Amino acid sequence: MNLKPFRFSKGEILSLSLILSLGGSPLWAQTAGFAYVTNRGSNSVSAYAINATGALTPVPASPFGAGLGPSSVAVSPNGQFAYVANATSSDVAAYTINATTGALTPVPGSPFAAGSLPVSVAVSANFAYVANVFSNDVSAYTVNATTGALTPVPGSPFAQPSDPWSVAVSPNGRFAYVTNLGGNVSAYTINATTGALTPVPGSPFAAGGSPVSVTVHRSGQFAYVANQVSNNVSAYTINATTGALTPVPGSPFAAGAVASSVAVSANFAYVANAGSFNVSAYTINATTGVLTPVPGSPFAAGFQPESVAVSANFAYAANQVSNDVSAYTINATTGALTPVPGSPFAAGDSPVSVTTAAPASSCKHDDEERDRDERRDGDEHSEGHEQGDDGHKGHKKHGCQHAGEKDFEKNHKDNVQESERGRS
């Protein structure tokens, strides 16, 4: 008999990226991005603008209506669409994101049917995947690049071993990973044309007790799983060819009580510990994937943090019982967390999932570059540097010149420095 967690949680995270607006001032001159939080108790999604300090300000008309029991939120890589898995109504709500304000507007045809008790959603450039606990499967969809609408992939849903709880897609879009409460992780190759899932040889791979959250490092080299019952984090290296998982030396790594969500940046990993009301922080060894506790870790959060998300400079934890979001500044050298002034920020009833996003680009060149980057293999630490240089030149070449050139240079320089730190 499987031990089911008594809460919904998810460890999906999409990092903030540098995106230019077409003409006028760059969008980050107005906001550093947006944050979205699902409120399971009030059937809504809280949306916030992130300012330069990491503080959260509700966007106009927030919170936005969702289905019943919204338990997971994810944003498309281009920042144009948001998707929410509604556990109780067994569907997926889709929204377009207003690039200026961050406000959500339902996509035509939304919500889209899912399996029984969908608790996690992940989205790549072309496809979306939803983990359905009670029907023991994963729903797969193609994403309409213009409208954000979802269409079931041929062969969907795809059967799972037992109680799938969290789903993540590798940054290059080649592999999908699903945690199963029975104590393992399923790995799949993704058909680049159809989005269909094929089990990786050797899958599923052993994890800890009740694995409830999975994320993939932006380099595509490592995967991390939060194990809620064994209170630790399983770390794996990813075979770049097959997608197979191999435990990292020293794995699993100790976390706090009821480790419910894991998120990673280029150099650091963070785990929301719902039972000990804090967030564990680790440095990531860029070569091995080994986790080392950050000095001062764990860092205090609100009551029962169920989900954690990171951007380049900030981290956010959704606190289910205190109905708020803890916000932190990330020390770029050590990974230590410092509360943002004004934190925690009010959310709805029972917030259980949080993610962040940059404003969507209105420059077609951006979308082409992002889609191409999603399909690339190899080390994204170096690719990110090259992509930033090429992308910057491309904006000028494609007529996407903008005011506030210094803002781009500053943000680009920060990202380059973060990438270089990841190499050391």
Summarize the structure.
The chain has 424 residues and is mainly beta. It has helices at 364-375, 380-397, 405-423, and strands at 33-39, 44-50, 56-58, 64-65, 70-75, 81-86, 91-97, 104-106, 112-113, 118-123, 127-132, 137-143, 150-152, 158-159, 164-169, 175-180, 184-190, 197-199, 205-206, 211-216, 222-227, 232-238, 245-247, 253-254, 259-264, 268-273, 278-284, 291-293, 299-300, 305-310, 314-319, 324-330, 337-339, 345-346, 351-357. The chain has 2 domains: 30-357, 7 Propeller (Methylamine Dehydrogenase, Chain H); 379-423.
Defining traits:
disordered C terminus; 2 domains; disordered N terminus; 35 strands; mainly beta; five-stranded antiparallel β-sheet; Methylamine Dehydrogenase, Chain H; 424 residues; 3 helices
Please explain how this structure is put together:
- There is one protein chain.
- Strands 1, 2, 3, 4 and 35 form a five-stranded antiparallel sheet that branches. Strands 5, 6, 7, 8 and 9 form a five-stranded antiparallel sheet that branches. Strands 10, 11, 12, 13 and 14 form a five-stranded antiparallel sheet that branches.
- The protein is 12% helix and 40% strand.
- It is globular.
- The chain is mainly beta and 424 residues long.
- It folds into two domains: 30-357, YVTN repeat-like/Quinoprotein amine dehydrogenase (Methylamine Dehydrogenase, Chain H), CATH 2.130.10; 379-423.
- A hairpin with a 3-residue loop joins strand 10 (118-123) and strand 11.
